[in-house]
Structures are given as C-alpha cells and as structure tokens.
C-alpha cells in the first residue's frame, strides 16, 4: 500500500533527524529561548527581508491559528474566512472555543477576493444596529489554499489594501507555504508576505518537519505579550529548541524550498499523466495537491494499492480524490501510481 | 556550564531517537490512529492492569491539563488544586481561559489531604446560596508534586474515597510520574493510579521523550468524544505516530522506569552530599528534584559553573535552589557538582 | 411620529404596572425563590400540561439563549440554526463567546426543515474525520420566526422526531410566542411545545412585559444545576420577584394571549389594507409583523409620520419595511397608518 | 416576619414607580438610545464633574462586572481582587467563564491596600518566567466593601496611584455606592471616583431601583465598542429606557443620596442600640450594613420575628449576622427590631 493521501505520512526530512541527533546531548534553556530558536528566527527574518518582525515557533496548525487569532481579537470580534478555510472546516470549533465567530465567505476554489471582504465589512458598518452583530476585525486566508490553489501577487495586494483601509488584520495560514512559493505560476515571495500581511505562518508539519510552525508577526502593534498566549494555549514546548532546530535545518540551506520543489515536481508528473489520460480535475492546481476525478470503479481499483484521500462526490458515478506528494514521495512511487492510472 | 536546573535540558533518550529514525520512512495514517499509538496504548494499559481504560497521547502538560479539565467540567464548575499546583501557578491561566476557576487549597510541601478537599466541598454545599459560587467538581493533584514530594498509598486512597463520596472527579498530573513511582519510599503503582483516579497522565516530556504525555481515562463516563477535545485544544498531531513511537520506546522495555531510577540515583548522590555537608532542604524529597538551601555567596559561586533553578528566598541571607537530575545526568556531571558543593 | 418599528416601544401592559405597584412594599426573598415566581411557575406549567417541567425566569432573550445553550453543550458541540436565526444574526456572537459555534442552515422565510437538520447531522457523522469538525448537538428554531412566519404542528413534529432520532437537543426561542400561538393558521399549543421541545422560552419583553422571559426545561436530563448558569450569565435578578410578578400578571387571566390576539388583529387590519392597496409582501405572515414592499418615494413619505423598520432592499427601486404591532397599538394609530398608506 | 437580611427585599422607591407609570405609554427607541437614558447620562456626568466620561446602563451587578472586565482584559490577563470581593465570592465564576482569573488578595475587613496591589504586580514581573503566569492587569475593589467598610480618600488615592504607575486598570464596584458616599466618615465624592478610577459603577438595584447599574467609563482608552460587549453579555435591554428612567428618577432630585442617608440613619439607630446593649461587631461600619455578633440562642429568638442574614460563625457559641437597611426600612420596623434586641 502506497500513501498519497496527504503530506504527513512519514517522519521528518533526514536533515532534520540528523540535526536532532547531532544536538541531542547539548544542554540548552527551554521554552524557545535557546540559541537554535534564535538562529532559526534570524534565518527566517533574513529571508523575509523583515528584520523588525517577530518570529514564534508553535507545534501545530490549529494551535497556531487559535493562538494568533485569540491574541488580537476582542470578545465581540470575528474573523472573515473562505468557507473552505481550515479554521471553518477542520479545527473542531477551536476559534469559537476561544470566543470568536468565524465568518465564512463563499470561496472560489478556496479563494476569496478583496471585494468580498470589503462587502462583509461594509455590510456590518452600514447596519444601524451593528453592535448587535459580530464585528469583522480579521481576515484569514491560506496560501496555498486548502484546495491547493494560489493567490496572485495582485490579488494579495488587493486583499491587503482592503484590509488596511478597513482596519482589518490580515492573517495568512501557510501550513503548506513552500509548496505555494515554489509552484509554477507563483508570483509571491516571503518578503511580499511580510509586507502585505499582519501575521502569517510558515508551516513545517506538512513540509518535512516532524511538527512545527513558524509564526511571523509583521505588524508591531500585534506583538505585545505574545509569549503568554503561546503558553496559555499549550504551544510552548519545554524543549522548545526542537522547533528551533527543525527550522534551522529547513532554512539554513534552503531545504524548505528544495522539499517543496521536489514535491511539486512529483505532483506535476502525476498531474501530467492525468491530463494525458483524460482525467479532469475538481480544481486546477500547480502545487503538491491534485484533485483528479475518477469513477467509482476506478477508485475501487486504485484503493487496492494506494491510500488516496476522498475529497468530494462530483455526481452519482464520479468523485474527486486528493493525491498529495511530499519530500518523501519518490520517483518510484510516482511511477507505480502513474502505471496504475494508465491501467484504469 | 552544566545544567541541573530542570529535567528537559537535552533532547531525547537515545532509544527514542533510534526508533524515530528506524521508522522514519514508514507510511502511516495520521492523528494518533497508527499502529505505534495502538501498540503504545496496549503497553500502557497492560502495565496499568486496566484493559478497559482509554489512552490518548498529547504534546505537552498544559495542553493535557486543559484538554482533560475542559472535557469534563460544565461552565459553573471549578477544580480544587493545591496552591502550588501547576495549573494554579504556571500555566498562564489556561484553565480559566477555558472558563473554569482553579480553587487553590493551602498545600504542605505540595500536597493536600482528603480532609481539606472534603472541607471545600462541604463548604460549598452548606452555603445557602451555593449557586452564587463556583461548584467544586474536580480535584487536581500532582505525583510527584511540584516540590518533588510524594503521596502515600494511604493518602491517595483517602483522597480518592473522599472524591467518590462527594462526586468529585480525581485527576492526577503525572508530568514526572516515573520519578515518583521509582523513588525510595514510594508506595504507589500504575495499577493503583488506574484504580484510584478517574484520569491521570504519564509524563514523557520531563522523562526522556522529546515531548509527549499519555493521558489515561480510567473512568468510562469521562471518555465520550475525547478526541474532539484533543483536536480543538491543539493536541492532535498530524504525525500522531511520533507520540506513539516515543511511548513504545519508553514502555516496551521499561525504559521509562530505568530513566527514572537513574535520575533518582543521581539525585540521591547529590542529596547525600548535601546532607553530609550540612546543607538543609526546603522540602524533603526522594525524587529527582532536590531543594537545598544556600547562602547568597554560595549561590554566586555555584552559578559560575552550574545552571541551577532559583526556587525561593528563605531569609535575607539564604535561598533554596532546585537541583534536578534526568536520564541525561551523568555520574561525571554529578561528581563535578558534588566537588563544587564540597568547596563552598 | 407614530412608532410601528417594533413591539417594544412602550413600557408594560397596565396589568403589570398595576401589580408591581400593588406588591411594591411587600418583603420577599430574592433571586427568584419568592412566592410570585412560584405562582408564575405553576401557572405556566399548568398551561403547558407539563407538571414535571422546570421553569426559570430570565431578563432578556440573548441572555436566555446564551444561558440555555451553554448549559447543555460540551466545548466541541455546536447549535444548528436557520441562517436568519436571532443567535446567528443579532446577538453579537454571544453563543461563540461561550465557546460554541452556531451552524447556520439556509432558511425559507425564516424556517428550516427536519430534513435539513438531518442532513447536517448525517454529514457530520459520515465524515471520516468528524472529530476535526464541530459536532452538531442542538437545534435552535424560533416560533414565530424572525420573519413572523410559523411552523405547522406537522413540521415541528418532524423536526422533533429528527432531533430525537439523532440525539439533538431541540430548543425553541419564543421571544414572540404568543403572537404565534394566537395567529390565524396556528396549529401549535403550549402543551405541544412542552411535548416536542427539550427547552423553549415564553417571551415577555416583546409581549407586554417590561422585560423578562420564562424558560421551560421540559427534558429532565437538562435541568441539573441550571440556577448556577443563570447566576453566572448575569440573569439572576436580586429582586427576582419582578419577573414572577410580571408572569403572574400575564398568565393568571390569560392576559398574555389577549395581548397577542389584539396585536395580531391590529396587524391584520394593516395587512388587509396593504393587500387591498396592491402592496406585495416580502414574507406572508399572520402574526404581528408585516413586511410590505414600498418604493423609495413611498418610504420617504411614510417616514415623515411613522417610525417603521427598514428590513431589506428588494431591488433598485423598492425595499421591504417591517410594520410591527403590539398590546399598545391602538385602533386609532392603525387607522392613521392605513390612511397614510391609502394616500401613497 | 420583618426582613433586615438585605437591601433588595421590596420593589422600587415610589419616585421610580411613579415615573415608570407616567412615561408608560410614550414611544421611544430601544436599546438605551432613548431620551431618558440620555438625560440620565447627563445627570450622572454632571454630578461626577466628568463631562467627557461615558455612561452605560446595565441590568445587574454580575453582568456589569463581567462586561466591564471582559471588555478590557486580554486572554492572559487577570484581575486582582480582595479575597472578599463579589467577583471572587458570589458570581459563580462569571469572570473565569469569560476567560480571566480573579487573583484574590487577603483583605482586612473587605479592603486591600495599594501596597498589596503593588506587591502582586511586582511579584509577577520579577519572576523570570512571568509569561507562564497570569498577568495582573486590573484591580477590582468595592465601595463600600462587601463588609460595609469604606476606603478613605487617601487610601483610594494610593491605590489609584499604584495602578497608574503599574499600568493596572482600576475598577470600582459601587453596588451600594450611595450608602458609602453618605456614610459618617466618608471622605470620597463622585468626582473623586471619576478622577481616581478608570471605570466604576453606581449601583441601582441595592439602592432603590427595581434593578439597574450605571457604569461610568472615565478612561477614554477603555470605551471603544463597549455597546457590543453589553449586547453580547446580555445587558442591552430592548426597553432600555427602563434603566434611563430609573436613573433620572434617582439622580434628578438627588433621591439617590436621600435614600442612602435614610438607610444609613436607620442603620445608625440599630448600631447604637447594639452598642448600648453590649453586642460586639464583626466589622466596624458606618453604612447600611451592620454585623453584630449574637449567641445561638439570641439568633434563634430573633429569627422568629426577623429575617436576618447569617454571615459567619465566630466561635462555637456565637455567630455574626448581617442586618441591612434600605430606603424601605421604616422607623417603625427599626423600633420593633431594637425592642427585640433589648429583650434578648
């Protein structure tokens, strides 16, 4: 059985394990104040061209989202989110559990526009009794989106400018950031994110780390006391250096981007095979996630050999599956899958 | 500089790193449903003699406490806790952030008694307007306590019986559980905990794991939907097997207890040296934490070579320091420390 | 200027003021344990044919909804609600502030069906990773709805039976209950509500009281410790008898239903005039709320003399307004309005 | 049976009922935006000499405390409070339910000092790992205290100056404010409160209103979006004018202070009788609450005729009772009580 269902089926990229081992017996202080976290922060800020920004390391995505959002919103404020956004769909109401409404907006292939955001914002303030309603104060988007799609630089600039005009905080979930930044057709860079977003995170878990996310707080107004929030929400590892070490490993020789490029290439091979074989897609993507549409029979056959991710029923006969590659997807695995696709 | 300030200065016990590496390229499902988590659950339940109990793996202590407590309390209910308890002192109000009051009770060397618990409970119900007050519904204790001290089997049985009589849920924080179970004078066993507590956790982070805690829900009434809570509170690792693997490594050859015994022996050596040299202690302990009292000058000298943990001012001239050993404390390190103590 | 914008423009029905005055100097115990609250409970339970149910009095609607919902849900659970429901639209995220997601379902004229509820429930449980999502555990509906429309007995029975089959708690917001129960075409009774719902409330604020809502907990499993929740959420009046007195005044001679009938009759007169004059309606209603559609010019003219409630733009030229009657709407006021409508 | 157990046994001061009746049929807008609320705001601000401050009306004390505190604290922040404070003792964990810890400080007769506050604050910031602990950010005190005692102007100035130096928000609960401001020995005025506190409230419920509290936000930094919070926490009455009307009635002819003076005089008479008869007191007070100490037998006798409030056991034989007067306590009632005391 070969797994293509997600990008976190294996352990960690070897360079990470290697560094964990190498440093294992060193003694350092805890809670993210060690030299490895310091070094990882420097590397990230350099690559973001944002020497003044603040970087914090957290364990996982839900935790990072919860911590960031609850740090900046007041009790009556909510966060605008594509209806496909992770905090809306797959975090068991973690944001609401911290007291805030997620305000879903209809998305197109996982994306929303600046115009949609402005409309929600204006709708709130135009209402005479706006204080009877949740006040939109933050915007959550993902890059790439949960459907593997990408915002263009223009689109992100528009969103950012709407947010600034409306006093909305822009937060970008980069759980799979590298796959986006290294994808064909990508027009964004880390410095763009640091310039256009108030807060964003660079995901490790889904991109070669054992676990871990690096949160960048670009807006200085949002930094106060952030470490308290990390501790309260359970994100402050006693052995905090584990996060620092992993991000040093990922960022010192640009391993993070190599991983992404490799995974994207593997996805491209599968994508091209699908096109060649006449399969259509639920979403057009250039990242490490592909959403080909198969018939029930085809799925049944594939599932004998492969663990894919069921995504969505398309009609009575057909469904979209998610195929996902990662640093650990080998040419060999991909060739076996393509062969199987050819024999459907 | 040698660190004796805590038990999480290094990475992980070699057996853990070894197993992480060995399994690194295996593909498994995520979120704690993999075979390693399964195996770790079996091992733990066997050693608890509690085949019917449920085991969940979480990342850290604050998260485990928050998840367990918020899973079982209703909004008007609070948790009784020694005034030295971790949730009262060192978790940035994580329990309150989930809506519940921590009700502190004066502790003796980190411990409270069944009698004290019953008094709080009775005080609540005897008040005519009890519904104007937080209802005590849970008891939180630690073993060993935050001060390294131990409850006897008799004491825990009394606490447990008070809790059952009063309808209070008994929760035991075992962040350093092994050090307690392997200490001189310990009278408790894992099966005792499974029998006497409703919920307890077996700590990994402070006992040789990179991170991770194993929560045992002994009381079947408290199990429903627990995985939702783990996800919501950020404790559900995508690569959940990392937790399973670590607990297999710790429990399959009783490494967990070896680690504890080793650390306790190293602490014993230091403790005996302190006694021999005439230092007194803030608390009498037999676990891996020692709290000797030094003068300002002595502390100054020690701090040139050693990273100890400042605990508490005793008088104008003297303070208690915490010295903490772990799996990673070598005889050599301990000897250097003893030598330094001798030269004070 | 005559107000028809809502049903809470005046003070209280004279019988209430009268009774408040009459009892003013009596001394009673506080917090809802006085003889007036007792008597009001009896009257309500009699009229519900539910001698075993529990009645609590709270101050306002948002508070009642928040208290009831947070009393029965666990942290990972949410409440299904028509997208037009009050808790979704007009309570400033009060439910989320208690930690729970409101799960909106597209409504037709304010109503949802048993089928829609079942679909949400089934969608949750059929998903493989349901624990990554908010668990639907409660259903919130209003009678009459926020748009003045009514569920039939059949529809409510279907909803109730879906809820019981799916283990969902059924909660009915009766902020304007009397107007519904006394409307033309109504097929429901108080005993039906007590039989089909787990919890519901009988609204006072919008039906002649100064303020106050009577919450009926029909399901005995949901009663435990409810008074703690009332206190915590700010709903326990020191002078609790004020609520008891008002509900005695409303229920002892069926004043509550007289008020509703009068308001509905006044609405009928206006409605019939609108029909006669050729105005169309945004929703078809038989209760005290009417939603006629006017042109911009017509609205401008009306607003010189009347305070109506802007509801919704229908097209570039026309908008729906809400006209609302109450116990305090006189024939004279209604005639003046009709005359104005005739002159548009 | 005559009630002296509290100051909310009767309805409202006649001037309030009178004004409610007089205005009953007027039509006004809702939610606190009506002319009566406007007028009440003006009256209060005039008497506070604080034309720039903001006044909001809420229904009850727990609600006011919860709304004010949750409006200004971030999730990791807590509120310092005398251990006898209402939010600590008698609000069913309402503050914790909004996510914040109440940090109790040992009180003397209900009071704490600036020095104690500074010590808690310094203790937090001096700790190396302060981010592992709840950050004290607000101070809650009551005037008069829950034990009927008073801060002097000097004491309040010291507290205020500590708060400003330490960046702590000073919040004063004035549930019984008038009794304090009109007591013998009082050295404070409304303008002092507006000058020294960031937020405080003027209680109506316990001082002649049916219900209602007037919250004064003196610090302009704390005003933003406060009406959202009122709505969310259930404090925004649909018929908001009921609050405005009551505070106009209380403040237009200084009825509020007359009520207080009368109640204090009645208390003085009882107090003097107790002194004369040789009873001692649990606390020395000059406000409307008296805490004489009686033997079991004496209490038994008194309870045949009077409803007093049991306060606290003093020793095996004796307990303190609370005797409380109000606007509604007549000379006659007081004489009967004194007679009974004489016959004990």
UniProtKB/TrEMBL annotation, chains A, B, C, D:
UniProt keyword annotations, A-Z: Pyridoxal phosphate
Q: Source organism lineage?
A: Bacteria, Bacillati, Bacillota, Clostridia, Eubacteriales
As cofactor, the record names: pyridoxal 5'-phosphate
Any GO molecular function: lyase activity
Protein family: Belongs to the threonine aldolase family.
Q: Which GO terms describe its biological process?
A: amino acid metabolic process
InterPro entries hit by this protein: ArAA_b-elim_lyase/Thr_aldolase, PyrdxlP-dep_Trfase, PyrdxlP-dep_Trfase_major, PyrdxlP-dep_Trfase_small
**Domain Aromatic amino acid beta-eliminating lyase/threonine aldolase, which positions?**
25-291
- Protein known as: L-threonine aldolase
